[in-house]
Structures are given as structure tokens and as C-alpha cells.
Amino acid sequence: MAPARERATLARAGDAPDRTARTAAGDETGSEHQIMGRRYAVDGYTAELCDDLQVVYRNPRGKKLQQIPHQLADTQGVRRLYKLRRTLSEHPRQARVQAEAWATAGTRVPMALAEADSVWREALDDAGVEPAADPPAPDDDETALTARTYVHPDDHTMTLLLRTSFARHWDALVESQEEWALTDTFATGIRVPEDTELPFPERLMAAHPGQEREALEAAYDFGWSLWGSPRIHKSAADDTLEHLATTAPRFLPAFLDEIADLCLAEGGKHKEYAIGYFTRARNAEREHHTKPDEHWLEARYATFADHGALAVGAVRARARELAPRVAGGPGVIAAQ
């Protein structure tokens, strides 16, 4: 039988508390700030995420500013707007990529997904995927995808597809947070191909069995996944990395590698940042005695070398690691 759509009981849109406006002590002592959906204000200065996903700053008289005023600079509220912008930009892109993959593979997609989220409906239409009125049979396999619909205080909704084995961790995290709230969940019957690489932060969770919740909370604090990427503010990312090194050093190499990849993909001036983050990731592995898979590490060095993104110090450190190995051993690279 086709699975019945299960309504989540953690938080329903109609039952959720009103979060459209709140007032609290500001990021700076003595100031007041307000968060109202896509708008953030400190002492009359405002930052607003517009429909075109641009963040606009205004002074107390309402005049548009060309630069961020110091009253708003590096505040949690502004970071929140950029995280939201990143999320609202990335969701359609990821949906398009997934829909195109389904079109190529001939995957049956349930109608419930198109009905739950207009972004998915448009992506499926563009890819030529006709949603099935009778959804695929439920699959309890850990690689099966479960749909989770979340609502933001500004009434924006978004449906994410998560592996069943990670969904409960996401649900518990979202329930405890004040922004995106879980409103609906249903099985899709869609299995993930075995050769598909886990995305971040699921990859971090899989690498730390028994510590999945802690790993996900660290990713949330850093501002990933539902809540976007930290690459917009390098200084903020570095501050968070410093905090992570103190509070959860076991996760530090993975975060450094993720930021290095983001910077490498961005290119341009970010390539220099990628070199630094890659080097710091390897140093963190040595400092905290993390043992990554050797084949994965060799491929990682090769990728960054191909992009000219390896520091001399990183190459020398790698050579010292390889030097003691016996030449000719299986899978071993001998340093000359």
C-alpha cells in the first residue's frame, strides 16, 4: 500500500508561537535590536533581505546606505540575514540538480513533494519529471529519503530531503531552535544511489557515530545547511573556528576542509583562503591525532595540487609523513 502522509507533531504552523517580531538586548551593550522576519534593526539602522535576495541597509531616516553601518557590522542579526539569503538561494539550485539526476535515472517521485514545495514543483517541471500520483513504496533502508517541510518566521516554507538515518537528528535540532520550525514530514520511497557522496554536515555525522547530535549542533552553530554557509564573512568564520577548536576540537579538521572546498570552488581571491584552510586542516589532524582515510587524503592533496592551492609548508609536512614508509608496499607512496 502507498504510505499515508504523516503529520509531524513537533510543531505545526498554526500552533507555532508568533516569532515575527521580538525585542531583546542588542549585540552591543546598551543598544536595542529587533528581528522581524527578513528585517533586522539596531538603534534605527536597518538591514533587510529583499525579494531579490539582496541585503539593503538604511539609516534611521530611511536613506539607503552603500555600506553596512558600524551599528550593524558583524552582528548576529545581520549574519542571520545572510544565512537566510544563502539558504533561499541554494535550495532552488540543489532542487534543480536533484531533479535532473532523477530525470536521468528515471526515478519515481511522489506527487506529495511537488505539492509541499513550489521550488520542487518548478524543478521537477523543468527537468521533465512527472510526479507519481501513487507514491513509491516506503523504504526503511538508511539510504531512503524522508521529506521534511520547515517554515521560517517570515512564512517562507522549504522542503528538504534527508536520509532516514539522519532525519531524527535534524528534527530534534530544529525543534529546539527558534527560526525554522518543522511542520510536516512524509516518506518519499526514494532510495539514494550507493555511490552518492554524503553532503555536509551528514558526512560529519557519519564520521562520528554516537556523536551525531553534537556534530549537527556544531554545524548549526557554524551556520551550515538549512542556515547557509559562513564563507560570506571570513572574520566571523575564523572566530567560530577558534571557538570550535576550544569546545569541540574533534570536529575541527572537517570544518576546515569544508571551508577550504568552498573557497576553492569560489576561486579568485578565495583561492588564497583555500590554501590556508587546507593547511590548517592537516595541522589540526596532526594536533588532535585524527587519522583520515589514506586514499581520501592522497586524493585531496592531488586535487589541491591540481589547482595550485598547496602551501610549501603543507607539502613539506606531507613529505615528512611519507618518508618513513617502506618503498614498494601496497598503496604506499615513498618520498624520494
Describe the fold and architecture.
By secondary structure, the chain is of the alpha+beta class. 44% of the residues lie in helices and 15% in strands. The chain has eleven helices and nine strands. The strands form two sheets. A six-stranded antiparallel beta sheet has the order 1-2-3-4-5-6, covered by helices on one side. Strands 8-7-9 form a three-stranded antiparallel beta sheet. Strand 7 and strand 8 (157-163) form a beta hairpin. Helix 1 packs parallel to helix 3 and helix 4 packs across helix 6. The chain is globular, with a radius of gyration of 22 Å. Mean pLDDT is 78; it is low at 1-32, 225-232 and 331-336.
Mind sketching the topology for me?
Elements: E1 22-25, E2 32-36, E3 39-42, E4 45-49, E5 55-58, E6 64-65, H1 76-105, H2 111-116, H3 118-127, E7 144-151, E8 157-163, H4 164-176, E9 181-191, H5 202-207, H6 212-222, H7 234-247, H8 252-266, H9 270-287, H10 294-306, H11 312-322
Antiparallel strand pairs: 1-2, 2-3, 3-4, 4-5, 5-6, 7-8, 7-9
Helix pairs in contact: 1-3, 4-6, 8-9
